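Incident log, structure service

09:12 report received: a user says their structure output differs between two submissions of the same chain.
09:20 pulled the input from the user's history:
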Amino acid sequence: MDKPKVFISHSFSDGSWAREFANSLHHRGVKVWLDSNDLQAGRSWKEAIEKRLRESNVIALLVTPDTIKRPNLFFEIGAAIGMGKPVISVVSEGVDSSVLPASLRERQQLLKSSPDATAEEFFAILHDTLSANARAL
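09:34 re-ran on a clean worker, output below:
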């Protein structure tokens, strides 16, 4: 099997944590797309995000109080679900689940801890998710 490709959605304020999380996944053999690491100057954010969403196997949503306020979160959730991509939410402790979109509330969530510990848990879930998705096809 090819290396799984993960698109990481996050808010600007969570960029440092997201980069550490992406690096931890990369060290576990996962191809990761993170806008702050991979978006080239002068390129369209919208086009790059749409392209990487299509190319990814799984979407990781880092959900913090700041993320809930981002319109991009809703676009990325809708695009992922519309494309039939599995979505794994990594939720900060301070997020009230009642403010999450219904499409996230109905899915099991991963509680955000340190980037490396979260990546370890995410990695285990990733392979189960991809296996289940492959069986469903």
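09:41 both user submissions now match this output. Likely a transient worker issue. Closing.
09:42 reviewer note: The beta strands are 5-9, 31-33, 58-63, 87-91, 109-111. The chain has a mean pLDDT of 85.
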